[in-house]
Amino acid sequence: MSSGWTVPPGADECAEYYRGYVARVPAGDIRTTLALNLEQTLRLLQEIPAEREGFAYAPGTWTIREVVGHLIDSERVFAYRALRFGRGDSTPLAGFEQNHYVRHGGSENRTLADLAAELAHLRHANLLLLQSFTTDSLNRSGVASGFPITVRALLWVIAGHELHHTDVLRERYLPG
């Protein structure tokens, strides 16, 4: 296998649910992709006027602040899974209920700038974590939410999940 940093995970490395996220990630080194994604996401968030931060495009959907809070929570969960499995701990990990996390996340009590700063700090910390991973680490796997997943797949899921939600922000939340 060539560099695990540039080889996307195979279909057998994650649950079917995650394959759509993986497919969104452009070819290249995942570390570079994660860094570039962050830059693009932060630019997008900076363009959102303060009066629009609490906007939800339909009743029952998340606000812009809640979408960003969801990105933060999800990245934390995926990175924790990558840490555990990358260090050889294959203890099965439970799933998380995203709507519950959003409901109790407190994002509506924060500014978008504050959430964006947290996302940036989290991503920078995760990029530093990746420096400790070897090709062997990337190939390790565990069970999360009842499905096997590799560390490599988790990194692609982080990137693809962010791309998915930034596309949703552009398409459904921000005026043309």
**Which structural class do the helices and strands define?**
mainly alpha
- Secondary-structure element pattern, one letter each: HHHHHHEEH
CATH topology: Four Helix Bundle (Hemerythrin (Met), subunit A)
Number of helices: 7
Question: What key attributes describe this structure?
Answer:
two-stranded antiparallel sheet; 59% helix; single chain; Four Helix Bundle (Hemerythrin (Met), subunit A); 2 strands; mainly alpha; 176 residues
Give a written overview of the molecule.
By secondary structure, the protein is mainly alpha-helical. The chain has one domain: Up-down Bundle (Four Helix Bundle (Hemerythrin (Met), subunit A)), CATH 1.20.120.450. It has seven helices and two strands, in the order H-H-H-H-H-H-E-E-H. It has helices at residues 16-24, 30-46, 64-86, 98-104, 112-130, 135-139, 151-173, and strands at 141-144, 147-150. It has a two-stranded antiparallel ribbon with strand order 1-2. The radius of gyration is 16 Å and the shape is globular. The model has no long low-confidence stretch (mean pLDDT 96).
